[in-house]
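Assess this:
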Amino acid sequence: MLRLAQVAKLFSTRNPAGFRAGFVALFAASIWLSGCASGGIDMLGVGTDNKVRTGSISTGGPAPEASEAWSDEMTIRNAVSSANLAELGNNPLAWANADTGSQGAITQISEFDVNGVRCRKFTASRESFEGVSLYAGEACLQGNGIWQMRKFGPAEG
């Protein structure tokens, strides 16, 4: 290793050959140090890993569109199940899902019983980046106090 006094002597203007040698040494050292900062320099490309890795590749599960539709379905179910039908009357019930950016309105909510189980039938619009869709569904109150979607799909007609 060169000491500071030796480097200063190499850069002396009285010794042009020493100045050139000092400049070359400084240039080589700067390249070597920049390789340390960037993770190494491999002039031949041997041993380098040039693959790009991201976390954007799904390792399973439903497609993003299916996940968004399911999330919207659960948001609609929550709105239907928590609606106060006496206060709502025939007015539409707005819903919005902050996770997907979708929104819409729920209309024609009616409550009925099937074998002692309370259910609500409804029609819902869904405005998303995919466009506007109309759905029909039924949610029923389970024995554990949780509402479950019994039917949900595109509205006919």
